[in-house]
Amino acid sequence: MFDPHPNLGDDVNGKIVQSEIEGGVFLEGLPPDTVLQIRTQHHFYTALLLGGNSALISGHPQYCPQPVQVTIAGSTWGGSMLKMRYIGRGMHLEFHHPEYKTPIITSLIQEIHEPLACELGSELASEDGRPAGIGKARRLASPTTLKPPPAPGMPCD
Fold first, then answer.
1. R_g (Cα) of the chain, nearest Å
2. Residue 37 and residue 120: Cα distance in Å, rounded?
3. How do residues 112-152 score in pLDDT, each as one tens digit?
4. Band of the pLDDT at 6, cuts 50, 70, 90?
5. Mean pLDDT of the region 85-99
6. Percent helix / strand / coil, the chain, rounded to 5
7. Partner residues linked to 77 by β-bridges
8. Which residues in 4-29 are b (16+ Cβ under 10 Å) and which e?
9. What is the 3-state secondary structure (H, E, C) of 43-78?
10. pTM of the model
11. Closest CA to 52 of 72, 68, 36
């Protein structure tokens, strides 16, 4: 259970609680080679975690049409307060691109999903057909996924 911080205002404490309700994932809780699919209001990103807060990210037609190595700062509520190394539904993903001085901030995150290998394509799958670092698919952030993952042992459509 969350205890409000006495030095933070009700609005900030409320947003912290809301981020716990909406769901998300802390990067340090995921192994390198984890693949995340992140759907925002305007784009669909794929992030291959490299360890720490580094990732190969793609999905934006201007900033990352092809995978580019970035540093994920975390998620914001649209202001200057950052929940570090966290990707959260209902928040904006913030990452640092090597070709831009200012951080890239996405539209609101609507879904975060760790896909099965058959949902990714062969370039991100390991020799056994699973995404590297991933056993079973996990829903990471909400009661619904972009599309329901197949049942264990069932092929993807």
1. 16
2. 9
3. 998 876 666 544 444 444 444 333 334 444 333 334 444 44
4. confident
5. 95
6. 15, 40, 50
7. none
8. eeeeeeeeebebbeebeeebbbebee
9. CEEEEEEEECCEEEEECECCCECCCEEEEEEEEECC
10. 0.72
11. 72
Q: How far separated are the first and last CA of the chain, in Å rounded? A: 40
Taking each continuous run of H as one helix and of E as one strand, the counts in the chain are 1, 10
- In the block, which residue shows the tokens 């009661």? 143
Give the pLDDT of residue 8: 73
Amino acid in position 143 = P
Compute the distance between CA of residue 38 and CA of residue 55 in angstroms, rounded to an integer: 13
Single-letter code of the amino acid located at 153: G
pLDDT in tens, 16-53: 777 676 778 999 989 999 999 999 999 999 999 999 99
Tokens of 140: 């990471």
